[in-house]
Amino acid sequence: MKHTLRTLLCSLLALVALAGAAQAHPHVWVTMTSELVYAPDGAVTGVRHAWAFDDMFSAFATQGIETKQKGVFTREELAPLAQVNVDSLKDFDYFTLAKANGKKTEFDGPTDYWLEYKNELLILHFTLPFKAPVKAQRLDVEVYDPTYFVDFSMAEKDPIKLVGAPAACKLTVVRPTDTSTASNAPVNEQFFNSLDAGSNFGAQFANKISVACP
Predict the structure, then answer these.
(1) What is the distance between the alpha carbons of residues 64 and 67, in angstroms, rounded to a whole number?
(2) What is the C-alpha separation between 180 and 192, in angstroms, rounded?
(3) What is the number of alpha carbons within 13 Å of residue 147 lying toward its C-beta?
(4) What are the residue boundaries of the structural domains of the chain, listed by start?
(5) Which of 9, 63, 66, 116 registers the highest number of CB atoms within 10 A of its CB?
């Protein structure tokens, strides 16, 4: 996704630079809502995301897409862009890390992915199924970009939901409290360009979701 966003924003960032200095990172902002999906036996089967991109990126990303009605984009018309975004997410593990009882839990490839255009924003919907459903007394999920190219923030209202979870399960949500960097590293564009998917810089901006089940 990072490479896709950089390609789409290349010209846009040049215009921003001409307009004046801007913060080096992030370049894209995403407002997220997510669901943790449970099976009837109480096992977690996966995570369902809906990511709303900022208005500047949404406008830029939809340029050149042919539509039947100006300013209106159908799911079918956005399907090629959805495919590119989902394919690119793979290199970054879909910006989603999950642990069941403290042990990393692997995801399969995304399913049910599609883009919608609503209130002039692009929203990417997709489901990340676990390779195998997991029963866990504690499930922890973090969402963040390790390179901090994309800034993720939870929606203000009902950002996380449990779907089909046992009634006794308790949900805890922790938002990043400070977007200033906690690192002593020289934080400039050269520093950010040196980061890759294996970096852990963005972990300090992680959105944290925890579910405790007896």
Answers:
(1) 9
(2) 14
(3) 24
(4) 2-212
(5) 9
Residue with tokens 């300090």: 204
Mean pLDDT in residue range 54-66? 89
68: part of which helix (H) or strand (E)? none
Torsion from C-alpha of 90, 125, 56, 28, nearest 10 degrees: -40
With beta carbons less than 8 A apart as the criterion, state whether 149 and 192 touch.
yes
User: Which percentage of the chain shows pLDDT scores above 90?
Assistant: 58
Mean pLDDT of 23-51: 91
Q: Which amino acid would we find at residue 82?
A: A
- Give the pTM: 0.82
Chain center to CA of 114? 14
Q: How far apart are CA 46 and CA 127, in angstroms?
A: 7
